[in-house]
Amino acid sequence: MDRGATIHAVTGSRSARLRGSAHQPPPVAFTNSGSHGARPRVAYFHDEQVANFHYGEKHPMKPHRLALTNHLVMGYGMYRHLDVYDTRRATAEELRDFHSEDYVEFLSRVTPENVTALTKTFGQFNIGDDCPVFAGIYDFSRRYAGASLEAARRLLSGDADIAVNWSGGLHHAKKAEASGFCYVNDIVLAILQMLRFHPRVVYIDCDVHHGDGVQEAFYSTDRVMTVSFHMYDGEFFPGTGRLEERGNGPGQRFTVNVPLRDGIEDAEYRTLFRTVMRSVMANFDPSAVVLQCGADSLGCDRLGRFNLSIAAHGECVRFMKSFGVPLLVLGGGGYTIRNVSRCWAYETGVLIDADLPNELPSTAYHEFFAPDYQLHPPLSGHIANQNTPASLRDLSRSVLEQLRSLQGAPSVQMSEIPPDLQGFLENSRSRNNGRGDDEEEVDVDGDDSSPQRPPRPHREEYYDHDGDHDDDEDM
């Protein structure tokens, strides 16, 4: 196994307990396997230790959701149909592929014990209530980033058609600062790896919050198209993701934002997602897909504002899988952890073509799912839907017009030695940032009022307001 990744044998008392449970559901059945008759090879990356980190009392981000997810995956017996891998920690050098040297050095040094001595740097790196200093912060970041890097490399090696890392997908982290519970942007790091071999990569973000960190990283290149479906009202964290944010310089038109209002329901979301992504795949023609499956877009999420069911969320995964290109699947937001784990277990089943029983398997965390113990609890209809048919038609029309204006996928000169993409991005930004104040940037619709780059307000995802819809932080 390259780079220290080793096959994870699911043996011992834990798996024996899961397989032998008295409440075990029937064996997993499989749906039809696609046009070629073979199920895809799915690599599953899980680090048992990453679930043990703790952001602090009352903080809504609970890495423990990963333990619940993995127990459901194992309890359903899906491990028999996955290539399950241990992970490794990303190195400091790998983190510096995207993040600044001083920021990586800060993460490696700061601890709860020395936090007072380093307080003066907190503003520089956006450390605060949303992104606190907790025990093992650097180790935690290296673990989830290392898993995403290994997943990307497994795809590049041809050993897998799909690779999954539910601990990844932390899309808010910037080059030199933490943001929105995210310290290291594993998504950007993984995409940079994939660009070594793939001429074009599409990134899709299904989190209720805009994927601002990934958008910013690739805002000036046409080799990555970022597509974000998110809640937007100008105030909801992170305050970016307007329709008019469409990229800059060589990347103009290659940033796609689909800003939605409160309370979108299943049928509307599915239709919009399929319509937009069908056009993205036709017009951009990516050779690899990265899909962030933030589960805070589910109904009843502590910090979310949508009404999506687990089945509808999973349809986004199923649809992107249907294109048959290498697919990296990552986690993301999600703060009602019993529903996050249900969702990601269900979507693991979607990836292996499994038809999972609605009855949850009995695991060590079975009581988290009381009182129904079902894979698909009712989650819709709790927030008034502010998305009208007219507003969704207008939104769809604007996005499709932007995609049609591409007039075909960009051609890329691929060299034997991977290009210095990071250097390219920095040079591109320098050229565009060096324009005089009187120079205008022309938008795809001729509206020159949109900013050169999206704004980056220092907002708090959770602590700016009382956004908690659940009295029990752990559920």
Protein model, in words:
- With 475 residues, the chain is an alpha/beta fold.
- The protein has one domain (2-433): Arginase, Chain A (3-Layer(aba) Sandwich).
- It contains 13 helices and 10 strands.
- It has helices at 13-19, 65-75, 92-95, 101-109, 122-125, 137-156, 186-194, 212-217, 266-284, 310-321, 337-351, 389-404, 421-433; strands spanning 29-30, 42-45, 83-85, 162-165, 201-205, 224-231, 255-260, 288-292, 327-330, 354-355.
- An 8-stranded parallel β-sheet has the order 3-2-4-9-8-5-6-7, sandwiched between helices. Strands 1-10 form a two-stranded antiparallel sheet.
- Residues 1-22, 414-425, 427-458 and 463-474 have low confidence and may be disordered.
- It catalyses: N(6)-acetyl-L-lysyl-[histone] + H2O = L-lysyl-[histone] + acetate.
- Its EC number is 3.5.1.98.
- Residues 1-36, 406-475 are annotated as: Disordered.
- Substrate binds at residues 130, 180, 335.
- The active site is at 172 (proton acceptor).
Q: Helix tally?
A: 13
Q: Helical proportion? A: 25-40%
* The CATH H-level homologous superfamily: Histone deacetylase domain
- Average of the residue pLDDT scores: 85
What's the topology here?
Elements: H1 13-19, E1 29-30, E2 42-45, H2 65-75, E3 83-85, H3 92-95, H4 101-109, H5 122-125, H6 137-156, E4 162-165, H7 186-194, E5 201-205, H8 212-217, E6 224-231, E7 255-260, H9 266-284, E8 288-292, H10 310-321, E9 327-330, H11 337-351, E10 354-355, H12 389-404, H13 421-433
Parallel strand pairs: 2-3, 2-4, 4-9, 5-6, 5-8, 6-7, 8-9
Antiparallel strand pairs: 1-10
